[in-house]
Amino acid sequence: MGERPGGRDLKRKSLGASFLIGPHAHIALERLAAEALTRREFATALKYADRRIRVSPPPAAHCFVLRAEAAWGLGLTEAALSDLARARRVDPFDVGANRRMLAWAADERRLAAAAQLICREGSPAILRAAIAELRRAGGRHWAACSVFDNHVTGWIAWTNALFVELSLATEDGTLTSILEPNPFHALASADVQATTFLVRRPASTTAQIVTLRCGEDVVQVRRVAPNLTSTMNLRAARDPSIGIGPNVDLPTVIVPVYADAQATIECFESLDKARRPQGTGKDAFQVLAIDDASPEVELQRHMSELATAGKIRLLVNPVNLGFVGAINRALNEIQRGDVVLLNSDTLVPPGFVGRLANVAYSAPNIGTVTPLSNNGDIFSFPTPNDVNPMPRYDEIVAIDRVASAANAGKAIDVASGIGFCVFITRACLDSVGELSDNFDRGYLEDVDLCLRARTNGFRNVCAPSVYVGHHGSKSFQEEKRGLVLRNLGILDQRFPNYREECRAFEMADPLRPARAALERALPWPAEPSVLVLASERTCSAVTDARIRHLHLHSERTVLLSRDHNLLHLRAADGGLPQTTRLRLDTEANLANAGDILRRLSPTRVEILEPNPPPRLIELILSLDVPIDRWLISESIGEIGSLPSGTTPLFVPSKMAEAYAQSRWPDRKIVRHDWPTCLLTLPPISANDKSLVIVPSTPTLASMRMTETLADRLWGREPSLPIVIAGATCGDDRLMSRPNIFVTGAIAADDLGDVLRPHNPGWILTDFEQPVFGHPLVETARQATRPVAYRDWSGGRLKPRKGDLAISAIVNAAALADLVIDWTTRP
C-alpha cells in the first residue's frame, strides 16, 4: 500500500531538504509522485499527486494522470477513471490520459480515447488496440498526418480493398498520389491494410489542402499553413473584379456553416429580421454564408433555398476548410465595405450591424467592435467569463433594446474581440489581412487578428449597447479545450504578454459598470427570494454551505455581500442581479438600496454577518419581512439590536445551540441542523497513523497554533506526522517543518478521499475560534476516528467515546500538550 507519511518523507525533511517549498514546489510534487509510482508506493504517490492538484499553478492534464495511476494502484477504480476524465477535460488530446482510458474503461469512454489516440499515438501496439476499438464501433479507415514546411507525412490504415488516394491542393493545382498497402507495416494484419506516406510540399504563400480518401470516403481533410511568408495584404490579394452584389459598400455579415441545422436556421432567421431596420425599405447589410462541406442534408437544402430567394449569397466548399479557411475564402470574395464575423449558433437583434458600426466610427482609430452576449467570455452578461443560459429570441431582442438605451454611446477598450460576433472596419481589415492559417479549427484566430490590429494602431472595443445570443461550442464541444490549448501556445509565441493582460483585465473588470447599468435597467425575476447577508470577512465556506442548503429546498437566494459601505448583490441561480452594487454611505443611498432590495421580492432575510452596522440593520428592518439571525461565530455584537421577543437566534448545530444557551440564556434559540457530508474513511491501520488537523479558516492564529503543536509533538513523538487537511495562510512555512504535510484547499465531500493515503488515526478540528456550520468542521466531527475539538458548550455536550473535548479557555501550549497526551495514550 506504499510507505507511510512518517517514514522516508520525514527523513528527508529532517535533513533540512526544501524540496516541497518555494516557487518550484509543484514540480517537486510531480517528481515525487512519479518516483513513488515507480516504486509502486501508491499511497505516497497519491498524497503528492493530490497536493499538486490543489496548489498553484493550475494542474495540467498529466497531474490528474499521476493521481489516477496512484488511485488505480490502490484499487480505487472509479476515482482513477474520474481523474482520467478530468485530465481529458483539461486536455482532450493528452496521450497519457487517453492511453489509460483505453486500457481501464469499460464503456463509451474507451471509444473517445481511441479516437484521440489515432492522430497522436506513436506506439504500434496501442494504435492497434485503438483501431480494434474503433472497428467495433463500425470504423473502416484511420489516419494520422503531420505537416512540416517541406513535406506532409503520416500513415493510413483501412479494412476494405478500395484504393487510397492522397491529394495536395496548391495554388498551382493538385498533386495526387495513389497509396499502395504495405503488408509489412506495423498496423497491417490479416484484415487491416496499412501504409505510410510522404508528400513533398511546393513553396507557397497561400494555404494548402491535404485530403486523404479511401474509395469514396473522405478520411481526413487538413488545411495547412503557407510555408512562405506573404507580403501581400488582403486588399492587394483580392481580385478587384469580384463583387458580391450592387451594394458593395454595405457591411457584409460572414457566417461559416457546418453543422447543427436547427441553431443555424434560427441564426439566419434572426439575420433576415435584422436586415431591414423598422421604417426603412433598404437593406442595412448583406449576408455571405459559406457552406463548409456540411454533412447535414437539411442544412445544405436550407442554405440553397436562402440563396435562391436572394436573401444570402452562398459559397460552397467542396471539402471542409475549417473556420479559418472558410472565413478567408469569404474575405477574398468581398471587394469593399466593413465585415461582421458571425458564428452560425448566434441569434442577432434588429439593427445590430448599424449600432456596431456607429460605435466603430465613434473614433477614428477603432478597428473592431464586439457586443455583449450570454456566452462571450469577458463579454458575457450577466456573469462574465461564464456560460450564462441562452435566452429565447424575444428575450434577446428585449435585452438588446434595454442595452441600447442603458449603454448608449459607450465604447470600452478591451485587449481583443471574440469572433462569435465581431465588427471589423475596412481600414482595419486591409491593415491586418486574413485570419492566420497557423491556428487549428476555430479558436483564438479571432484574438490573433485583433491583437495584430492593435499592433497596427487600431483599438478593440466592446459595444455594451448591443446584445447577441450565443449557444457556444456547438461545433467542437469536447475538442474545445484541446484546441484552445494548442492555439494558445501559438498565441503565446506571438503575443507573450496577452495572458497576463487578460488576468489584469479580469481583476479590473472595466465592463462591470456597463453590465451593472444594463442589469439595473432590466426587469428582475418576480420569483420570491431569500436575502442572505454576509460580509467579506464572513467565512465564505459557511455562507456557501447555507446557500446550497436553501437551493436544496428550492428557495431562490440572493447573496448580499457587504464590503464596508457597499453591498454586492449576486443571485445564486446565475440570474439577475449579479453585478449591482449598493452604497450605504448616505440617507439617499440607503433609501435607494431599500427600493432595489424590494425589487427582489424578499420573503425573509437571513443574517450571517456577525456585526452588520446599525444603519444596515435599519435598512433590513425597513423591508418589513421576517429576519432569521444565524449564529455562525462567537462575534454577534449587535445581538440586542434586533427585538429579542420577535427575532429568535437560529443555530446550525448542537454545539452552536449549547454555545448560544450559555452566552444568552434569555434569548430564544431555534436549532435547524444543516446537512453534513458523509465522511467515509478506510479501515485504520494499527501502525503508521497520522494526526490530521482540519482547520476552519486559513488564519495566522490557526497557523501559529499548528506550529506550537508541531514543535511539541516533534519533541515527544517525531515519527508521528501531522497532516493539515485544508487551506492555510502559509503552506511553505508549514511544509518546511519535518513533521507537517499540507494537502491544500479541499471541499467537505473530498475529505475522505484526501485523507485516504494518510491513514488518519486522530482528527483535530474546531480549535481556533467558534465557527458554526462550517462544512469541513462539521464533516470532520462525525468521522469514524477519535476527534479532538474545543468544547464551546462549556461541558453541556458529552463527547463521544475516545473523543477529546478541550476547554475553550486553554492556551495554545496547553492545547498542544493535551492533544499530544491524547494521541500517545497506550
Short précis:
The chain contains 28 helices and 30 strands. The protein is α/β, with parallel strands linked by helices and 826 residues long.
Explain what the structure shows:
This protein is α/β, with parallel strands linked by helices and 826 residues long. It starts with 7 loop residues before the first helix and ends with a helix. Mean pLDDT is 89; it is low at 1-8, 10-17 and 231-246. The longest helix has 17 residues, at 700-716. Helix content is 37%, strand content 20%. Helix 5 (77-90) packs antiparallel against helix 6 (95-104), helix 6 (95-104) packs across helix 7 (109-118) and helix 10 runs parallel beside helix 11 (297-308). The protein is globular and about 90 Å long. Strands 8, 9, 10, 11, 12, 13, 14, 15 and 16 form a nine-stranded mixed sheet that branches.
Given the C-alpha coordinates, what overall shape results?
A: globular
Fraction in helix: 25-40%
Number of helices: 28
Q: Please report the total strand number as a whole number.
A: 30
| Low-pLDDT windows of residues | 1-8, 10-17, 231-246
N-end to C-end Cα span:
25 Å
Q: What Rg is obtained from the alpha carbons, in whole angstroms?
A: 32 Å
Approximate strand percentage: 15-25%
Structural class: alpha/beta
Could you report the average pLDDT, rounded to the nearest whole number?
89
Organism: Bradyrhizobium yuanmingense
GO molecular function: glycosyltransferase activity
Keywords: Glycosyltransferase, Transferase
InterPro entries: Glyco_trans_2-like, Nucleotide-diphossugar_trans
Helix and strand topology:
Blueprint: H1 8-14, H2 25-38, H3 42-54, H4 61-73, H5 77-90, H6 95-104, H7 109-118, H8 124-136, E1 141-147, E2 151-158, E3 164-170, E4 173-179, E5 193-200, E6 208-214, E7 217-224, H9 234-237, E8 252-257, H10 261-275, E9 286-291, H11 297-308, E10 313-316, H12 322-331, E11 339-342, E12 346-347, H13 352-360, E13 366-373, H14 393-406, E14 412-414, E15 421-424, H15 426-432, H16 445-455, E16 459-470, H17 480-494, H18 498-508, H19 512-521, E17 529-535, H20 540-552, E18 557-563, E19 566-571, E20 581-583, H21 587-598, E21 602-607, H22 614-622, E22 627-630, E23 649-651, H23 654-663, E24 669-671, E25 690-694, H24 700-716, E26 722-724, H25 731-735, E27 740-742, H26 751-755, E28 760-765, H27 775-781, E29 787-791, E30 804-807, H28 812-823
Parallel strand pairs: 8-9, 8-11, 9-10, 13-16, 17-18, 17-21, 21-22, 22-23, 23-24, 25-26, 25-28, 26-27, 28-29, 29-30
Antiparallel strand pairs: 1-2, 2-5, 3-4, 3-6, 6-7, 11-15, 12-16, 13-15, 14-16, 18-19, 19-20
Helix pairs in contact: 2-3, 2-4, 3-4, 4-5, 5-6, 6-7, 7-8, 10-11, 14-19, 21-22, 24-28
Organism: Bradyrhizobium yuanmingense
GO molecular function: glycosyltransferase activity
Keywords: Glycosyltransferase, Transferase
